[in-house]
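Hi! If you just cloned this repository, the fastest way to understand the data is to look at a raw example. We've pasted two of them here, unedited. The first protein comes first, obviously.
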Amino acid sequence: MSTTPPVGAVPWLNPDEERAWRAFLRVVVAVQTGTARDLAAVGLSEPDYEVLSTLSERTGHTSSLGEQADKMGWSRSRLSRHATRMESRGLLRRTPDPADGRGCFLVLTEQGLEALEDAAPAHVQSVRRHLIDRLAPDDLAAIEQIARRLEEPQVGDDRPTT
């Protein structure tokens, strides 16, 4: 009996692949749930932290809405709605993008920088508790290697690379 599916058939996961897939999902859920809970305790969501930390690393603490949406894997409209909520909390402000009449720049405010600085130690502790300190150096290197491999474009993949 051949394990090769007929042409056009779905190549179902074998038991080893199925276990690996489910283990991966459990890890992602466990780490994200833990870090999200810990960030919420200091008043930020994971997307809030992602936006604030990205802006803090950029020249002028500024990024275009489109660049930030691409970095997060979000649509512009989804990020725009989220940015509106962050703006209402004083964490960022928007300025027009002269090169894109429909776009804008997200600018980190002093209040946003303070919120990030207050949350960063708790976030690092959370990442350590839920992931880093539970793995050996070889495990961490394997995660990096896997991530690099998965970031490589696939044949027929029309997504833009970032």
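Ok, and the second one:
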Amino acid sequence: MSKRRSNHTLNERIEAVLRVMEGSVSVSRIAKEYAVDRTTINVWVRKYKENGGDGLKDSRTWKGYSSELKREAVEFYLNGEGSLRTTCEKFNISSHSVLCQWINQYTSGKEIKSTSKGRGTVKNRC
């Protein structure tokens, strides 16, 4: 969803993912080496598994989500059918912070609309 750029090159991200997947280094150790959160490493691994090296390229476009997909994902999570991570994996959501925004909108009674390009961010409590 975001146009954020990583502080790490594509090759660095691939190297980190492969080291984790080989089991030669823990996620915690890689996170410390690259000065990122463990969640970031887990996201890199998920994206690599889904799309190979292309999954780790910096995004230059916004990812759109339909209101139906958002509602399904939120209800899946709130019904206890999955964690933030597994819900993001199941519904191909870019990050758990995106899902948290939807959850906060849903639980506050706001309408969940389809994602449109360039929408502002919402502080989340998730």
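That's it. A detail worth noticing about the second one: DSSP finds six helices and no strands in the chain.
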